[in-house]
């Protein structure tokens, strides 16, 4: 990845420098020159093994809500629903028609989180949330 | 009782847990960690500090939120300004008044619709009640004239200097030649009192037909602006044409040359104007970037916590998707460091936090923090 970027960069710089030299012969070459090699390493975000998780609120909260919804839905000042609280979360679950619960629809219709829907990134998390809701959203 | 205990536990855990390390990098012997503080928002255009524990940030789509650095919790504020969100326009930068603790003023720059199909760059302020999470009435302190039907090159960052004057840039709005015209606001840096009044020592006060708000001119699309408290210098960074992104030292009344002189070429490949790069009476940039990086924020890092950053220009790159570092000293020829390449995100704003760390926002709706050390 880094190697690829470097080669692309070198190619770019080379192309640009040629264009510039032919036009105005600057005293010094002013195009991009890197100071040093900086080694970047992405940190793997621990992926959750949903298969092994029991379908209860605590697990949904710790693995789905905490990773993907907490910045807006945790804490006393957060938006409704307060997804860190079981009773408050249940208000968005329709016990008479579990599959049409607003909690589920908000995610499955791609409206939550507002700008980067979970549906398009973390299908497993959504599946776990769905399974928990359909089994009656147990504590 | 059991609930209370549980609440206590989650508070303790969420304090440490919300900042998620996503990357580490090494420069020489020094290690750094990049942590994600919040996620899931729109394009985060502006980030500013209200106090040690509270960030305020703007999204291009018009929302303003606070981010509590103790809990990681974002909170949508109420009573937001009306903005025109289209093309490059929308809600843009945010600044906190230097005396916020006394007067609660927050400033934003934004794209404003003036009449059907015509919009322009404007600056508004309102008082923020931090506890209520709500603004009082928004008041425009500046509206750039004239408005245009184009929806690009609005500028604009906003900063205060040590005397409390407000500075911000208005882009050329795609009307290149007007950047040299002193009777319009586009392509200019503007200087005002904090309530919008015009300082009588502005450079063009006595010039017939010139607009009195102008501080400097000949700018293309300034989207980086930094007032360096250490030296009193005002630095500006602008999107140039291809190969012509610039860092400028902005001084009273000076002409920065666009579109008469530039080191860039049109993105279509042709030369700009007569292809000149120097002319007397026009300022040279401190640095221009080849190739273009598309800078959208500028900071001079004066802290000591991140050694790699000290006394360097730090700018966020949109097109080349990285955080750019280049030394102040001999900046024209200095080498550059490119960081955060692995994130693959357009870097929008960059700030030095009150804690001396560097905070970065992206078009993917995230805010990151860079700290020294390892995991």
Protein structure class of chain B: mainly beta
Largest sheet of chain B: 5 strands, antiparallel
Ends apart, CA distance between termini of chain B:
36 Å
Query: How many strand units of chain B?
Result: 26
Rounded Rg of chain A: 25 Å
Percentage of helical residues of chain A? 40-55%
Structure description:
The complex is a heterodimer of chains A (139) and B (375). By secondary structure, chain A is mainly alpha-helical. In chain A, 45% of the residues lie in helices and 3% in strands. Chain A has 6 helices and 1 strand, in the order H-E-H-H-H-H-H. The radius of gyration of chain A is 25 Å and the shape is elongated. With 375 residues, chain B is mainly beta. In chain B, the strands form 6 sheets. A 5-stranded antiparallel beta sheet of chain B has the order 1-2-26-25-24, with no helix packed on it. In chain B, strands 7, 8, 9, 10 and 11 form a 5-stranded antiparallel beta sheet that branches. A 4-stranded antiparallel beta sheet of chain B has the order 3-4-5-6, with no helix packed on it. The longest helix of chain B has 16 residues, at 2-17. The chains are: A mainly alpha (139), B mainly beta (375). Strand 1 (39-42) of chain A pairs antiparallel with strand 1 of chain B.
In brief:
The complex is a heterodimer of chains A (139) and B (375). Chain A is 45% helix and 3% strand. With 139 residues, chain A is mainly alpha-helical.
Layout of strands and helices, then pairs:
The complex is a heterodimer of chains A (139) and B (375).
Chain A: H1 2-24, E1 39-42, H2 57-68, H3 70-73, H4 86-90, H5 102-108, H6 123-134
Helix pairs in contact in A: 2-6
Chain B: H1 2-17, E1 20-27, E2 30-38, E3 44-51, E4 54-59, E5 64-68, E6 73-76, E7 91-96, H2 100-103, E8 105-115, E9 118-129, E10 134-135, E11 139-143, E12 158-160, E13 166-170, E14 188-192, E15 214-217, E16 221-228, E17 233-239, E18 245-249, E19 287-289, E20 295-301, E21 312-317, E22 322-327, E23 336-339, E24 347-352, E25 358-362, E26 367-372
Antiparallel strand pairs in B: 1-2, 2-26, 3-4, 4-5, 5-6, 7-8, 8-9, 9-10, 9-11, 12-13, 13-14, 14-15, 16-17, 17-18, 18-19, 20-21, 21-22, 22-23, 24-25, 25-26
């Amino acid at each position: 990845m880094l190697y690829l970027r470097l080669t692309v960069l070198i190619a770019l710089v080379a192309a640009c420098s040629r264009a510039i030299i032919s036009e105005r012969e600057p005293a010094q070459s002013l195009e991009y020159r890197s100071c040093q090699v900086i080694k970047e390493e992405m940190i793997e975000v621990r992926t959750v093994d949903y298969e092994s998780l029991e379908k209860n609120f605590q697990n949904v909260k710790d693995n789905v809500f905490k990773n993907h919804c907490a910045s807006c839905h945790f804490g006393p000042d957060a938006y409704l629903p307060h997804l860190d609280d079981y009773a408050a979360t249940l208000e968005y679950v329709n016990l008479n028609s579990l599959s049409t619960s607003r909690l589920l629809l908000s995610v499955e219709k791609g409206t939550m989180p507002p700008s980067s829907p979970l549906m398009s990134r973390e299908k497993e998390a959504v599946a776990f949330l769905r399974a928990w809701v359909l089994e009656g959203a147990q504590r | 009782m059991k609930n209370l205990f549980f609440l206590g536990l989650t508070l303790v855990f969420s304090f440490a847990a919300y900042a998620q390390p996503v990357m580490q990098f090494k420069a020489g012997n020094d290690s750094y960690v990049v942590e994600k503080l919040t996620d899931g928002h729109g394009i985060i255009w502006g980030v500013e500090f209200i106090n040690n524990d509270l960030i305020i940030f703007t999204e291009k789509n018009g929302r303003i939120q606070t981010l509590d650095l103790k809990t990681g919790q974002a909170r949508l504020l109420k009573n937001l300004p009306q903005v025109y969100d289209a093309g490059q326009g929308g809600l843009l930068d945010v600044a906190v008044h230097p005396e916020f603790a006394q007067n609660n003023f927050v400033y934003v720059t934004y794209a404003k619709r003036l009449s059907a199909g015509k919009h322009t760059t404007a600056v508004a302020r309102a008082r923020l009640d931090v506890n209520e999470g709500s603004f009082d009435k928004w008041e425009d302190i500046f509206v750039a004239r004239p408005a245009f039907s184009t929806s690009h090159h609005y500028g604009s960052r906003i900063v205060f200097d040590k005397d409390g004057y407000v500075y911000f840039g208005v882009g050329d709005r795609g009307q290149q030649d007007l950047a040299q015209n002193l009777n319009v606001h586009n392509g200019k840096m503007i200087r005002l009192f904090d309530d919008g009044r015009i300082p009588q020592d502005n450079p063009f006060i006595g010039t017939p037909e010139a607009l009195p708000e102008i501080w400097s001119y000949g700018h293309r699309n300034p989207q980086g602006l930094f007032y360096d408290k250490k030296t009193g210098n005002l630095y500006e960074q602008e999107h140039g044409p291809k190969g012509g992104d610039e860092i400028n030292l902005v001084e009273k009344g000076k002409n920065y040359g666009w579109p008469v002189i530039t080191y860039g070429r049109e993105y279509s490949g042709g030369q700009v104007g007569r292809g000149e790069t120097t002319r007397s009476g026009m300022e040279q940039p401190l640095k221009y970037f080849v190739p273009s990086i598309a800078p959208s924020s500028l900071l001079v890092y004066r802290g000591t916590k991140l050694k790699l950053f000290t006394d360097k220009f730090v700018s966020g790159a949109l097109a080349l998707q990285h955080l750019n570092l280049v030394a102040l000293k001999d900046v024209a020829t200095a080498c550059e460091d490119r960081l955060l390449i692995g994130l693959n995100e357009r870097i929008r704003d960059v700030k030095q936090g009150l804690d001396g760390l560097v905070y970065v926002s992206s078009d993917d709706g995230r805010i990151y923090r860079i700290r020294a050390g390892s995991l």
